Amino acid sequence: MANDQPKILVVDDEAPLRRILTTRFSILGYQVVTAADGEQALDVFLAADPNLVILDVKLPKLDGYAVCQELRQTSEVPIIMLSALSHVADRSLGLQLGADDYIFKPCSLKELEATIEVMLRRVNPFVDLWLTCHLAQGCK
């Protein structure tokens, strides 16, 4: 994979969902790294330096809220919480702790993809150029 591809960290304790998202995002041209629990998420984040994080809330070892808080202490990376917890209070808490968006499971992959694209365009002009070229299939 080319090093200029945007990198997404997918954090979810459900292996089938991690595989689906990894496959889909790889097909779209993103690099994907994964973590199955909150502690691993922090380690992978430091090692991989992703452009965006997709973060489940209900994780073993350290929940997604705590991971989000920890990431926000040192990074402004876009964080999308993807969770089965669908109460307004859950969404509000995620956003208050620093998530940029909170999407309920199950979700539309198209909605998730569009949210990723919008967030990546906002944070990095180079990523914006990559997305423009890649999505138009005008760059290699």
Task: Tell me about this structure.
The protein has 140 residues and is of the alpha/beta class. It has a single domain, classed as Response regulator (Rossmann fold), CATH 3.40.50.2300. The chain is 49% helix and 16% strand. The chain contains six helices and five strands, in the order βαβαβαβαβαα. The chain has a five-stranded parallel β-sheet with strand order 2-1-3-4-5, sandwiched between helices. Helix 2 (38-48) packs parallel to helix 3 and helix 5 crosses helix 6. The longest helix has 15 residues, at 109-123.
Overview features:
140 residues; 5-stranded parallel sheet
| Unreliable segments of 5+ consecutive residues | none
Share of residues in strands: 15-25%
Helix percentage range? 40-55%
CATH superfamily: Response regulator
CATH architecture: 3-Layer(aba) Sandwich
CATH class: Alpha Beta
Radius of gyration: 14 Å
The description of the largest β-sheet is: 5 strands, parallel
Number of strands: 5
Order of helical and strand elements: EHEHEHEHEHH
CATH topology: Rossmann fold
Number of domains: 1
Average pLDDT level: 88
The secondary structure category is: alpha/beta
